[in-house]
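[Q] Does anyone have a clean structure-token version of this?
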Amino acid sequence: MRKLFLLMLMLCCLAFSAVASAAQVTDVKWGVDKDNMLRFVVDLTDAATYKVDVQDKLMTLTVDAALKDGVAKSSKTRSTIASVMKVEPAGNKTLIKIPLSRELKADEYKSFTLRKDPQTKRPARIVLDITAEKRIAPASVATTNKSSASTEKAGVTISNKPSAKVASDTAVVGSKPVTNTRKKPPGVGTAPATVNASVSAPSVNLSLGGGSSEESEKDRKKKEKERKKAEKERLKKEKEAKKKAKKNKGKIDANKVGYLTDGGIEGKVITIDPGHGGSDPGAVGARGTLEKDITLEISLRLKEELEEKGAIVRMTRSTDKEVAGPGASDVDELQARINVAERYKSDLFVSVHINSSVNKKVGGFSAYYFPKTKFDTKIAKSIHDELTENFGRDNLGLREANFYVIKRCSMPATLLELCFISNKKEEKLMRGNWFQNKTAKLIADGIENYFK
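[A] Here you go.
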């Protein structure tokens, strides 16, 4: 009898332990891209099973995880297929109910999971995409109509692709879309955004966004006029930069051994690494801004700034893609970025990231280095000083870290964390042209100072 009692007690303890360690839903976000694709992302403390059920005009995502206190129970969405989502606790489960404007076919929605990344502190996630009302628009069409403007406003960018292993090399945490005047290369969303999952799924641009008030026709026309003006100025500047850099194009010394650290920036080979990309969205902001979109925009502008100064610039990626290709392992993805720098005998490697934290109030700039040479600290400090002395955001200091991309490359390198996507004020800043242009210029100035 006593043995039976002890056995029952042990079983109770195990049951209690299992319940105590069960996953919880910590957040539920949504986003709509420029083509009207609707995405829902569920953040979890740990991996959990789920199922999607569609009955008539009601879609229900049932997650086998309890709903954590403080998660919003209802949110309006901006989509023609669904105008609201409701989050309901159901014991140890969480129900996300989405009333639909019409019944869905099996091929008009899909779901997948994104794994937890302990290194970057990004949560496990479940992603649900509704493609029922998705529009297929030309790649280079300017966002001038009302629906496009709404997408930019929501700051959401989404792309489809099945789950793949994704490399992650951010400093803290991360995460949704942005609006800018740059003409996007094929594969890059007009309004960057994504859920910050350090993991990815099919070329997924996880984009989550919250709603915002409708712009008046007058405001939209004014913004469109400003956008065209900015685009005209950018094209002019880009033309001048290409002309100035033409003499350097392809002139990499085949006999070059090692890296150069002084003598001026002209002719120096610099590899710029926009963090994340493709199925790896990086960190995601409350408005759906995607880290991968912001890092790409800043990096492309940084390339222009450096070429104007006479540098030879190589990019690990210039579109929304994985560098190693879909399905590559985390290590292969990170190594592929280093390989670009090594292939072109780069003098410097700069990896661009956006930070994130569970503390929504923290913000500011930080620069990471690994002291494999005496110049790694120097380049990190040179860029960091420019950013913190001329931007007006918090200085989080220089930090030593053994991030793969800055540790394994042979040349001096730094990984930059440009403000926090988890901070509402900074997320709003980074979505705009002013922030992207200024950070690019200051980083370029810091690099120029380094080579003096």
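[Q] Thanks! Anything notable?
[A] The first strand starts at residue 24 and ends at 32.
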